[in-house]
Amino acid sequence: MTSPTTSKSLRAGASSYADEARGATAHALDSTKELASHALERAGETVRDLRYGVKDLASKSATSVSEATAAAQRQLGQYAQATGRYVSDQPVKSALIAAAIGAAVAALVLAWRRNRDSRYY
Q: How far apart, in Å, are the Cα atoms of 121 and each of 13, 93, 115?
């Protein structure tokens, strides 16, 4: 049998180990919480950086498209002015060129339709 003194010392030792285990568990939980908090902060910063990067890229893309559209409009305006000058300088030649192009397009459309209709018979 065990003596009362031995039993008390065993209980005191077990209690001491239990206290140490509780302390280690609490420390582990605190460390885990701290690591999780840091990970969430870093993830939040990364998402914020990505969001700002996407906004910046979208803004730059919109500016590029706008600039390209403006350049295309300027170019078309120059072509329209040049065509207007040519027509006013040489109206007969312009009318003949337009008629020739119209006849060529009409001939192509007729040939295409005739070719398409002949496939079904």
A: 104, 43, 11
